[in-house]
């Protein structure tokens, strides 16, 4: 039966809801898995590096495939790509729940990353298309999109803790099956976006991107147990650098690069991407460390840890909605600047926690960190979308989210290496990670001050960022 698209304006609330739902599914699997890490370590006999791979297998594949997913979204249409992403995510979640070893779980988590990659760029492209490139309307829609993810991030630890206690760790993956079915039903009537059938997957660039980020992540993870001078660690770092340089060379020479280097010449684009890396590196790394801190150091159970995480995640909802309003009235710069400074303050307070800290001492950093991130992310996303014309929104959003997810993978690897070291331990490692995160977000604020400026949306007649540097 042929599908009848609803009129664009009439279907805008439904499109926002459907697109936001998919992004919420992606974010749910970040926090719901983190709260289960101690249980997974016990039942699957996984070490700290093994647990890092459980988290990073998902984040890493998600990151490296986002750029190709953006091309797929532009070529096939965002709705088609989005539906494929939901179906793939459901199948991979079933494989995660059926895993009988850490290696099987890591492989299934990587497959989840493939599905997740096909959800984020198409969801933003659907939003941008439905808003008809109206800057204020788009800012409010992105605020709702990120707020939905904030609700999911907040619910993840609580739902994960309850499921762990009632049904075991497999249930945190099987719950995605009915969730994805709901997402498929919501996305089915959404209006399709214009297709760009002339695009193709940049296979050499994709392979080099996977090799560069995977070797870098592996080197950082193994630096904890093996040491920075170990040949495997040094070899991994060298391979990462070599693949990154080759990647840039390939992208400069190919006619249809997966990473359009010309995007980085656009006003605000490079600064927003670097800002996104800093935000995700610090937050994802902190969530990993705090999961171990709450359950291994403070002795919290899974459900108790999930409730403890609520302010660390729930503040996103309010700050995301406030950010959408601020961007619509004042542009992207003020909420990005304010968000970075608030987040830096929260991480500075996190460095004061010790093995005997009560929950009241945790509350201020648990509120400030997501409060700042929630203000910054919608503004940063809006700045990216405003820097390119509408037809390139899928690829541009993929560049941003790939950079962010790569930052998150490195954050988990680096912070996990700190707390997994026998010389430091969880609490001292958390202190180093928190102070480093505070300094990084302070530098991100300076980057916004000097690198983000007022900008009008890109004209439809622009070239799409394919010019080379």
Descriptive report:
- The radius of gyration is 21 Å and the shape is globular.
- Helix 3 runs antiparallel to helix 17 (393-420) and helix 7 crosses helix 16.
- The chain is built from 18 helices and no strands.
- The model is unreliable at 1-10 and 456-469 (pLDDT under 50).
- With 469 residues, the chain is mostly helical.
Salient structural properties:
469 residues, mainly alpha, Growth Hormone, Chain: A, 18 helices, 0% strand, disordered N terminus, disordered C terminus
Quick take:
The protein is an all-alpha fold and 469 residues long. The chain has helices at residues 12-34, 37-43, 48-76, 78-97, 102-117, 120-130, 135-167, 171-174, 176-187, 203-226, 231-253, 269-297, 302-308, 310-330, 333-350, 359-386, 393-420, 426-451. It starts with 11 loop residues before the first helix and ends in an 18-residue tail after the last helix.
